Structures are given as structure tokens and as C-alpha cells.
From TrEMBL:
Protein name: DNA repair protein RecO
One Gene Ontology cellular component annotation held by this UniProt entry: bacterial nucleoid
UniProt family annotation: Belongs to the RecO family.
Residue ranges annotated for the DNA replication/recombination mediator RecO N-terminal domain, each copy included: 1-79
Pfam family of the protein (one): RecO_N
Gene3D superfamilies: Nucleic acid-binding proteins, Recombination protein O, C-terminal domain, Recombination protein O, zinc-binding domain
Length: 250
């Protein structure tokens, strides 16, 4: 079987037989890959612990007919160590993994930007340097943008009229002008629109200035936008715990 090497983040695993696992991986060069890790459930396995969800690994894989096979695994970063012991980080992390799994649809299609975005989000989440809610909201917006669903927070999403505008509508694609505004559009505060734009572009100095009310309104709009464009709610979302951590700045 031909061999190839790639960096990967483990999105999920499932048992196979008595000692094996199937790992769903988001790789840097080959997109989403499903591969068998033989014998990893045995205590004597050489790399079982490296193939857990949240792990960032360097892998050698053998190409198979239906599933590839992991032949070597070296740890790059064990993000799970800083995530699984904290409920807010853990529930946020599971949403990050499920989102990446959902948005990268085709297997073996390059998804380098999604891989890099997920790796960066897991790194920040694991260190605790930013609140889980901010990490998640920024990730959802940016991952949707990479997938072709970038919301507009300035020009009208329908006619392109320069903003700022007052109305937000997920079906329309973001902020809309008075002429294009569909019924039942949300009317977010200007501070919320500024915050959303900062989360989308990664402008953290601006994003960290938002007050709790602005962040809550932003989170609701992001959830509505994501749900509309993905049709079905993420399974991990109802378990989310985003209680603010008073020890984190911003």
C-alpha cells in the first residue's frame, strides 16, 4: 500500500473490533481522512494515547481501499490536556471539532485553511488565554467564511450598498439596508456589529473590548447564522457551558 505523511487533528474516534479504532482526521494537506489505528486500545499500543480527540499529530498513513491505516504517529501538541479537565473548555472544544467535521464534507479534498484555523482555536482554548465563548464565536464565523458563507457586517449583503446598516438577517447573508431588509430581521446594536466584524477578521484588541451584553447578542446572531446555513443544529451545542471566567482579561 502506498504511504504518505501528513499533520492531522483527531476529530473523533470509534471502536473497531477488539482492539482497533477508526479515527476521523482533519489533515493539513489531504483534508478529512478516515483511518484505522490498529491495536490502539491495547495497553501496549505504541501510539494509542496520541490518537485521541483534540490531539495534533504527525502521521504516516498507508492508503487503503476504503479506509487508510495509521502506521506511525508522533505528537505535535496534546491540546486535550488543557481542555478535558475544564468543562467550559471541553464543551467548547467538542463544538469546534464537530463544526470542522460538519463543514469539511468531502474526504481527501484539501482543507488547509480549516485545519490551520482549528489548530489555532484548540491551541488558544487549551491555554485558557481567551474565554471559550470568544474562541468559539470567532471560530464559527471564520470557518463559515472559509466554507463560502462569509457574512457581511458592513455593506448590504443583498445589494452592496455601503454601510453601516441596522438590520441583520441570516437568510440574506448578514447586515442589510432598509430597502433590502426582510421581515423579522434582527436590529443589533452598533457595538454588536463592530464586535462581530472583529471576531470575523481576528481583530482581538477590538473584540476584547466588548461588554457582556454585546457578547451575548453577538453569540445569538452567530448561532442563528450558523444554524440557517447548516440547517441542522450541532449535536454538541446543547451541552455548551460558556460561563465567563473572571480570571481571564477582557
Amino acid at each position: 500500500m502506498p504511504l504518505y505523511r501528513d499533520q492531522a487533528i483527531v476529530l473523533r474516534t470509534q471502536k473497531l473490533g477488539e482492539a482497533d479504532r477508526i479515527a476521523t482526521l482533519l489533515t493539513r494537506a489531504n483534508g478529512k481522512v478516515r483511518a484505522v489505528a490498529k491495536g490502539v486500545r491495547r495497553t501496549s499500543s505504541r501510539f494509542g494515547a496520541r490518537l485521541e480527540p483534540f490531539s495534533h499529530v504527525d502521521l504516516q498513513l498507508a492508503t487503503g481501499r476504503t479506509l487508510d491505516v495509521v502506521t506511525q504517529a508522533e505528537s505535535i501538541a496534546a491540546y486535550g490536556e488543557g481542555i478535558v479537565g475544564d468543562y467550559a473548555r471541553y464543551t467548547t472544544g467538542t463544538v469546534l471539532l464537530e463544526t470542522a467535521d460538519r463543514l469539511v464534507v468531502e474526504e481527501k479534498e484539501p482543507a488547509t485553511q480549516q485545519h490551520l484555523l482549528l489548530a489555532g482555536a484548540l491551541r488558544v482554548l487549551s491555554t485558557g488565554e481567551r474565554e471559550p465563548a470568544l474562541v468559539l464565536d470567532s471560530f464559527l464565523l471564520r470557518s463559515l467564511a472559509i466554507s463560502g458563507y462569509a457574512p457581511s457586517f458592513d455593506d448590504c449583503a443583498r445589494c452592496g450598498e455601503p454601510g453601516p446598516h441596522r438590520a441583520f438577517n441570516p437568510a440574506a447573508g448578514g447586515m442589510v439596508c432598509t430597502t433590502c431588509r426582510p421581515p423579522a430581521s434582527a436590529m443589533p446594536a452598533l457595538a454588536t456589529v463592530t464586535h462581530l466584524a472583529a471576531l470575523l477578521t481576528g481583530d482581538w484588541p477590538t473584540a476584547l473590548q466588548a461588554d457582556p451584553r454585546t457578547r451575548r447578542e453577538s453569540t445569538g446572531l452567530i448561532a442563528a447564522f450558523f444554524t440557517y446555513h447548516q440547517e441542522n443544529q450541532l449535536r454538541s451545542l446543547p451541552h455548551l457551558d460558556l460561563t465567563p471566567n473572571p480570571h481571564l482579561a477582557g
